[in-house]
Amino acid sequence: MAFFLLLNLSTNWIFCIVTDTSNNDIEPPLDPVELSSWRFCSDCKKHEPPRSWHCKICQSCILKRDHHCMYTGCCIGHWNHRYFLMLLVYMTYSSTYVTVLTFKYIWSYKYDEFFNLNTIFKLFCPVSMLVLDSASFLPSCFLLPTCLNA
Ligand SMILES: [Zn+2]
Ligand SMILES: [Zn+2]
C-alpha cells in the first residue's frame, strides 16, 4: 500500500514537472477567420490560442493556465492538469495514511502515555505544552520568541 502511494505520488509529481505546458508546438491557423479568435501575445510575439495565458515566470504562454505552482516549479495548464490533480489526490490520501499509521503505532507502543487526557489536549492545543510540561517549559521560553519572529 505504501509503495503504491509512493509510486503514484512520485510519478505524478515528475510527470507534472517534465510535461511541456507551453504553446511552442501549437501553430497558428492559416484561416484568417479562425485566427481572429486567437490573441496576440506581446511578450511571446506570436498568436496564441484562445484560453491561453502568459506566465511571467515561465516566459511562455500556457494553454488553459491554472496557476504557476511553487511545488513543481512550473505552470499547471492543459497538458499537465491531469498529473497535478492526481498528485493532489495521492498527496491527500498518503498524508491520511501516514497519520493513521503513526497514530496506530504510537497507540500500540505507548498506550498509557498516548491515551490520557493530557496528551490528547496537547495534540489539539500544542501551546499548552508551555504550561503543562515542566521539562519543556524552559526550552520553550527560548524557542517561542524565535518561532514568533519567523
Ligand atoms: Zn505569451
Ligand atoms: Zn509559469
Automatic annotation (TrEMBL):
Transmembrane segments in this chain: where?
A: 87-107, 119-144
Please list which residues make up the signal peptide. Answer: 1-16
What GO molecular function annotations does the UniProt record carry, in alphabetical order?
protein-cysteine S-palmitoyltransferase activity
List the InterPro entries hit by this protein, alphabetically.
Answer: Palmitoyltrfase_DHHC (IPR001594), PFA4/ZDH16/20/ERF2-like (IPR039859)
> Got a GO cellular component term for this one?
membrane
Q: Where is the Palmitoyltransferase DHHC domain?
A: 37-144
In Swiss-Prot or TrEMBL terms, this protein is called Palmitoyltransferase
| Organism of derivation | Megaselia scalaris
